[in-house]
Amino acid sequence: SLDEDSGMVFIFSEAQRGGFWMKNTLIPLSIAFFDAEGKILKILDMRPCEADPCPIYDPEVAYFGALEVNQGAFDQWGVEEGDSVHMN
After folding, report:
1. pTM of the prediction?
2. How far is the C-alpha of 19 from the C-alpha of 14, rounded, in Å?
3. How far is residue 24 CA from its own chain's centroid?
């Protein structure tokens, strides 16, 4: 499980291409890919996957970070593509 107001952030020192997968992940997640300034470029919903082949969730844009939260949390919070991610 993931606490309601929690998430997992992935930060990269260089722009990345490609996606994330959900192999051996037990809960559905939403992921927001963002640029170097924190602008959200793409939000995708991801489903758990127990066995190969697992789908790759590719934003099809270059990104510097990704934030995973419980699926639907971005919608509940009113967060959309074009908004900014601010980390404390």
Report:
1. 0.94
2. 15
3. 16
Tokens 């601010």 identify what position? 86
C-alpha–C-alpha distance, residues 61 and 17, integer Å: 6
pLDDT tens for 53-64 read: 999 999 999 999
Q: Please, are residues 47 and 70 in contact by the beta-carbon 8 Å criterion?
A: no
Per-residue CA distances from 81 to 7, 30, 44, 64 (Å): 17, 12, 10, 15
Q: What is the pLDDT of residue 8?
A: 95
Cα dist from 77 to 20, 35, 53, 71, 74, whole Å? 23, 20, 32, 12, 5
Joined tokens for residue 85? 């991610």
